[in-house]
Design goal:
The protein is mainly α. It has one domain. It is 76% helix and 0% strand. It contains 14 helices and no strands.
């Protein structure tokens, strides 16, 4: 069942990717404010579920608290850098680049001694880097398309997600997914709120315009919660397999379709750029699946 949950999570994250671009491009501009409101919505929804259905919440022990603190730190940092990256990078780039999370995950699980891979698998994994460069190319076809702040911001997010995947897998060994989701999101919101003195004016502006600003960001929270909960459930299974499925470049498909019918709304590139991104993303996906599912073992 964890494979089904991983696919559903992948769909939610594809929609999150698309909606995030729309919000940061047309609605709110401050990534810290967006992250804070989005995560408050996530916590509110999950707390409502716990209250309505009477799900008891267990108090975490010391080891679990350390996991939640690390989870929160990496999540908040990654979340803020994600929105900064989406402000500068095409949706059709950010989605296929998600495969870099696999690179970070494999390196981390090797360093931590959780999983090991064959030499061929490691070679294939590091081939994802030149493929990522191809994915980032635009019509001028210059290396600067990859070596830019937007890509760097997203790399911080993908590294953070790799760490979060491992923490989630470890935490799930001792807690059920509702407990883990509740405490992890609570810590995220507490850390988010530490930025409140610097973004209070922006938050007040967003709340004062509920339809134009607050509602779109709230939708991010709803979609993000759905994707995160499904991911937590899925990661109780094989980390590599789930990471591979969640790496499916579904946002690339959505962005391409939208560009065909409404050029410039999300992005606007020549047809051959999208073809190159699809080919590079397809190669990346094959590598991720081959390693994640152990096809080469």
């Amino acid at each position: 069942m964890y494979i089904l949950y991983a696919f559903l999570s992948s769909i939610m994250f594809a929609l999150l990717n698309l909606f995030s671009k729309i919000v940061i491009k047309y609605k709110a501009k401050n990534p810290v404010s967006i992250s804070l409101i989005k995560n408050v919505v996530r916590l509110t929804l999950l707390a409502s579920y716990v209250f309505i259905f009477g799900h008891g919440i267990n108090i975490p022990g010391r080891n679990e608290l350390i996991v939640f603190l690390l989870y929160g730190l990496f999540f908040v940092v990654g979340d803020i850098f994600y929105f900064k990256g989406m402000e500068k990078v095409d949706v059709s780039v950010s989605s296929p680049l998600f495969s870099m999370r696999t690179v970070f995950s494999v390196v981390l699980v090797y360093i931590l001694g959780i999983e090991t891979y064959s030499l061929l698998e490691y070679v294939l994994i590091f081939l994802l880097l030149p493929l990522a460069i191809l994915i980032s190319m635009k019509k001028d076809f210059k290396l600067k398309n990859f070596l830019n702040p937007g890509i760097a911001y997203l790399m911080v997010e993908y590294f953070s997600l790799a760490v979060i995947s491992i923490l989630t897998n470890r935490g799930q060994l001792r807690m059920d997914f509702v407990d883990f989701s509740f405490w992890s999101i609570l810590v995220v919101v507490i850390l988010n709120l530490s930025f409140l003195p610097w973004v209070f004016g922006d938050i007040k502006k967003i709340v004062g315009r509920p339809k134009k600003l607050l509602l779109p960001i709230s939708i991010l929270g709803i979609v993000s919660l759905a994707g995160s909960v499904l991911q937590v459930v899925a990661l109780a299974g094989n980390v590599a397999v789930v990471t591979a499925i969640i790496s499916l470049p579904l946002s690339l498909v959505l962005a391409t379709v939208i560009t065909i019918f409404k050029p410039g709304y999300i992005e606007n590139n020549p047809w051959w750029v999208y073809l190159l991104r699809f080919v590079a993303a397809g190669c990346s996906l094959i590598i991720v699946l081959a390693v994640g599912l152990g096809w080469l073992r």
